[in-house]
Automatic annotation (TrEMBL):
<dbReference type="InterPro" id="IPR003959">
    <property type="entry name" value="ATPase_AAA_core"/>
</dbReference>
<dbReference type="Pfam" id="PF13304">
    <property type="entry name" value="AAA_21"/>
</dbReference>
<dbReference type="InterPro" id="IPR027417">
    <property type="entry name" value="P-loop_NTPase"/>
</dbReference>
<dbReference type="GO" id="GO:0005524">
    <property type="term" value="F:ATP binding"/>
</dbReference>
<protein>
    <recommendedName>
        <fullName>ATPase AAA-type core domain-containing protein</fullName>
    </recommendedName>
</protein>
<dbReference type="GO" id="GO:0016887">
    <property type="term" value="F:ATP hydrolysis activity"/>
</dbReference>
<feature type="domain" description="ATPase AAA-type core">
    <location>
        <begin position="91"/>
        <end position="221"/>
    </location>
</feature>
Length: 225
């Protein structure tokens, strides 16, 4: 191996046959020569998950035992910090179990995530700051309907002149629900996470799109997303 030359840490060597899930994986023993040692792995799980234990490699291959598990663990941690959101408003209008408070990709448990955020006054203030300037309505507060079975549904408080009214999730517009889901995702994403949002301005009035982008940047900067 020449200095600076890129060499794979491992490589799948052939496919599993029809009678087993086992596949052969060649791993880098950091020694000269093209013939690399092989270990059995399962094709039912990502290979890098199966290489996090030093004991998977031959005892004499100390560099393999040290380097490969460290790199594969770093890959896993990086992927864990990627958050995908493809909000589906039709699925966000129902109750969500209060303990189901890690945002799902479709946003269906949004009410539970918002409930979790609202239990911390500072986070609730930031959530309101995120959503207040986006929809056409003047949103002054966020509340929840809670059942005896610990299911929750989000309810927004809107101001019209001197009067206020509450609007439950089933009556909220698609655009408002999407903005709520985006806010919930940004405020609960792990520090340093990469947040990927599908069609972020879908359902948002064009006049509000620029404001949405500004709010996203500001919130992401505060959260270090």
């Amino acid at each position: 191996m020449k200095p600076g030359e890129a060499v794979p840490l491992y490589q799948v060597d052939g496919r599993a046959n029809d009678h087993t899930d086992e596949i052969r994986v060649a791993y880098n023993n950091f020694k000269r020569g093209k013939n690399k040692p092989h270990i059995p792995c399962s094709n039912r799980q990502a290979i890098f998950y199966q290489l996090e234990t030093p004991g998977r490699f031959e005892s004499a291959h100390h560099d393999s035992q040290r380097i490969i598990p460290a790199v594969t663990k770093a890959i896993r941690e990086t992927l864990r910090n990627v958050v995908f959101l493809d909000p589906r408003p039709a699925l966000m209008r129902d109750y969500a179990y209060v303990k189901d408070d890690l945002i799902k990709e479709d946003g269906s448990n949004m009410s539970a995530v918002l409930y979790r955020i609202s239990q911390e006054p500072e986070q609730k203030t930031r959530l309101l700051a995120f959503i207040k300037s986006l929809p056409e309505q003047d949103i002054t507060d966020i509340e929840f309907i809670k059942t005896d079975r610990n299911d929750v549904m989000v309810r927004l408080v809107e101001s019209f002149g001197q009067k206020s009214r509450t609007v439950d999730a089933p009556l909220l517009s698609d655009g408002t629900l999407r903005v709520l889901a985006v806010g919930a995702t940004l405020l609960t994403a792990p520090e340093g996470a990469l947040v990927v949002i599908e069609e972020i301005d879908n359902g948002v009035h064009p006049s509000r799109a620029e404001t949405l982008v500004r709010q996203l940047r500001a919130t992401a900067a505060e959260e270090s997303c």
